């Protein structure tokens, strides 16, 4: 059997003869010159040729400094590619040399015994000739074969008995009993020596068998396992190391400089801590990156513990290297997802407060504009205030989109038709220097999304692509069906298992660097020059995809372009034509006729503005700031025709719960919800519309009038309860 593991200790019992030889180090003409880490002759010879495992010399570590650094226990036989394989010269056949050694030992033992028996006729019979056979039996034991020991012992016993007849005379002045006793002592020495030699060989074989079992277990472990001597020099690597480095044939010697396998940024830190642990005897634990056979660096957690003898001296170091690249990636994705979630909560809260302020600003700007119609200069100023406030409202909508708090009206949508309808607008937006193509997919599933929000998302992606291609290029829209058999996560969230329609938007622009790629979804983060963008485009697309129960993935190569993929959930039903909104009635037609409205709004500014606006629209208003106050009024007042309530309010009762309790008191009560912000606890616009109408903030006078008119006349008086 042959051993081809670079640096692996012999897996079979090694004979005692191996310890007589200082080492097999045949010359290797033509071997490349240069510094090398001479860890052990056993590892070097095993790596440079196919040595018989029963003839590997013992370890003789020689710690040679490499680039001024002491080598340590890291998986050294790493190489970037197979072109770096060293061409080592062949050596003499080791099996032939082993057989020569064993044969020589047996012949020497036999000749020695024959010499002893030949000496018998020239010595007195009382001489203890048997004692001379003991070292010859030990010589036979060095072959490592117990059968040679048995044969040598038996031959020695026979020759010792034969010598009694060959001796010419007893010792002078010694009785025959003395001569016989010496002969028996020699016989006992021969038998005892043979028995002890066999016992020692058996014990040695048993010890090495246990070592072989441990190494087999280490080779079965899918992690890197290694050992080092007390000086910190590597002495063993398991099979996982060889597979990781891409050398399953074990053709690279263990003595190759393992420092090349470490990431350049980790080498100094790793070696400093390792040498400190070697000198102090403390446990070793560190994380660093190791080069894999495919040329990539992967993070590993390396730990080692020293083994001490009875006197407290370190005899070995044993350690492992565990690949934690996937764990680190998941942790990084989780941190990024938590960061985006925190930013979403922050921006959503800011947008909610801004929407309350903008409701007052936009509404009063409209009133001023109409009241100052006879004063053109003042009316124009009111119009400018209104336009600026409307731009602020658009900005908060983008913030709400990132925070996944915008109002969505999901329905089954044919993406192919939507892309065809949007292509002309996108082409005009791109300009003549950018070619746009849309690749339809036959049999594309319908997607359950808000069509208008998807159009906005695609337009934002197109605008980003345009800015990334100042010198022109290609913008491509592609679609496909996708089934996710299992859930998967990345830094942008989790894609749940299920069916999806994938919309891919690719450009040939400047691309995004790896450092920026992890932040492009953050609001107000932009790689464009100052003044060229708000940094809300991709964050809005991200929020839309997540709020639609979908996912977004982005890939980019600097200088080659960027691809953004939107995973949109498949609709259970076939797509339906987009609903055409009925034309809103004129403001005069939507005026109230004295109906009583219970207005619940915790913000004083919004409540004051809303009360005045409702009275101007012809309604009787009962304004309150708390849900508990509204319930108390409903218990004692039967004249309330409609409940107009904010959704998110302090006091423990939100607008949805208030509507449900109000319906129990007044089953025929109509409800209109309003909010600039919804949360994830079922308070989305789709759920709210099952209970009543929904009017997002900031609202204009005309939209408020139309919504109230619709609720008073067209909305069911008692929709089904959604308390379950």
UniProtKB/TrEMBL annotation:
Gene3D superfamilies: 1.10.287.130, 3.40.50.2300, Histidine kinase-like ATPase, C-terminal domain, PAS domain. It is an enzyme of class 2 (transferase). This is histidine kinase. InterPro entries: CheY-like_superfamily (IPR011006), HATPase_C_sf (IPR036890), HATPase_dom (IPR003594), His_kinase_dom (IPR005467), HisK_dim/P_dom (IPR003661), HisK_dim/P_sf (IPR036097), PAC (IPR001610), PAS (IPR000014). Residues 349-572 form the Histidine kinase domain. It comes from the Bacteria. It comes from Alkalisalibacterium limincola. It catalyses: ATP + protein L-histidine = ADP + protein N-phospho-L-histidine. Residues 1-44, 76-95 are annotated as: Disordered.
């Amino acid at each position: 059997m042959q051993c081809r593991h670079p640096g692996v200790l012999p897996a079979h019992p090694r004979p005692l003869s191996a310890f007589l030889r200082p080492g097999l180090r045949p010359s290797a003409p033509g071997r490349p010159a240069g510094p090398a880490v001479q860890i052990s002759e056993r590892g070097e010879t095993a790596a440079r040729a196919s040595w018989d495992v029963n003839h590997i010399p013992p370890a003789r570590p020689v710690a040679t400094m490499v680039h001024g650094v002491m080598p340590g226990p890291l998986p050294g036989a790493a190489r970037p590619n197979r072109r770096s394989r060293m061409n080592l010269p062949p050596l003499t056949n080791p099996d032939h040399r082993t057989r020569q050694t064993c044969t020589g030992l047996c012949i020497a033992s036999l000749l020695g015994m024959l010499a002893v028996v030949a000496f018998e006729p020239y010595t007195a019979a009382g001489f203890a000739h048997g004692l001379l056979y003991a070292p010859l039996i030990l010589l036979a034991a060095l072959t490592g074969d117990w059968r040679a020991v048995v044969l040598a012992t038996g031959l020695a016993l026979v020759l010792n008995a034969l010598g009694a007849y060959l001796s010419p005379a007893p010792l002078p002045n010694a009785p025959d009993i003395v001569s016989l006793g010496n002969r028996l002592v020699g016989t006992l020495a021969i038998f005892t020596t043979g028995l002890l030699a066999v016992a020692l060989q058996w014990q040695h074989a048993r010890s090495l068998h246990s070592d072989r079992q441990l190494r087999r277990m280490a080779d079965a472990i899918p992690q890197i396992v290694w050992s080092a001597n007390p000086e910190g020099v590597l002495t063993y690597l398991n099979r996982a190391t060889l597979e990781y480095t891409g050398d399953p044939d074990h053709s690279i010697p263990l003595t190759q400089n393992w420092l090349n396998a470490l990431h350049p940024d980790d080498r100094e830190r790793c070696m400093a801590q390792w040498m400190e642990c070697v000198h102090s005897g403390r446990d070793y634990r560190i994380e660093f990156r190791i080069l894999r056979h495919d040329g990539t660096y992967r993070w590993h957690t390396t730990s080692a513990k020293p083994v001490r003898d009875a006197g407290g001296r370190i005899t070995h170091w044993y350690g492992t290297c565990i690949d934690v690249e996937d764990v680190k990636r998941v942790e990084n994705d989780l941190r990024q997802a938590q960061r985006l979630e925190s930013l979403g909560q922050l921006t959503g809260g800011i947008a909610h407060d801004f929407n309350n302020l903008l409701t007052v600003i936009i509404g009063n700007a409209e009133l001023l504009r109409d009241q100052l119609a006879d004063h053109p200069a003042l009316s124009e100023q009111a119009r400018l205030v209104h336009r600026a406030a409307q731009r602020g409202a658009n900005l908060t909508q983008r913030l709400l989109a990132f925070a996944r708090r915008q109002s969505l009206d999901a329905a089954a949508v044919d993406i192919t038709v939507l892309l065809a309808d949007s292509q002309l607008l996108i082409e005009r937006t791109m300009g003549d220097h950018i070619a746009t193509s849309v690749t339809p997919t036959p049999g594309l599933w319908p997607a359950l999304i808000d069509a208008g929000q998807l159009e906005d998302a695609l337009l934002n992606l197109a605008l980003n692509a345009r800015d990334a291609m100042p010198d022109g290029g290609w913008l491509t829209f592609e679609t496909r069906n996708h089934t996710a058999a299992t859930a998967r996560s990345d830094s942008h969230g989790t894609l749940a298992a299920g069916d999806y329609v994938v919309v891919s938007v690719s450009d040939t622009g400047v691309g995004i660097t790896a450092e920026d790629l992890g932040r492009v979804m953050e609001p107000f983060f932009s790689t464009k020059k100052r003044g060229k963008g708000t940094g809300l485009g991709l964050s809005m697309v991200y929020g839309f995809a997540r709020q639609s129960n979908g996912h977004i993935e982005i890939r980019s190569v600097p200088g080659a372009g960027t691809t953004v993929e939107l995973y949109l959930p498949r609709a259970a039903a076939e797509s339906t034509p987009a609903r055409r909104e009925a034309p809103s009635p004129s403001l005069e037609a939507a005026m109230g006729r004295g109906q009583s409205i219970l207005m619940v709004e915790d913000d004083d500014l919004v409540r004051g503005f809303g009360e005045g606006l409702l009275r101007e629209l012809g309604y009787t208003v009962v304004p309150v700031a708390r849900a508990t106050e509204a319930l108390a009024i409903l218990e004692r007042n039967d004249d309330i025709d409609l409940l107009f309530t904010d959704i998110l309010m302090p006091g423990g009762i939100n607008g949805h719960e208030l509507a449900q309790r109000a319906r129990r008191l007044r089953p025929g009560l109509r409800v209109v919800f309003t909010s600039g912000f919804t949360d994830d606890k079922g308070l989305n616009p789709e759920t709210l519309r099952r209970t009543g109408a929904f009017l997002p903030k900031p609202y204009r006078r005309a939209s408020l009038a139309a919504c109230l008119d619709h609720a008073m006349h067209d909305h069911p008086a008692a929709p089904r309860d959604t308390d379950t």
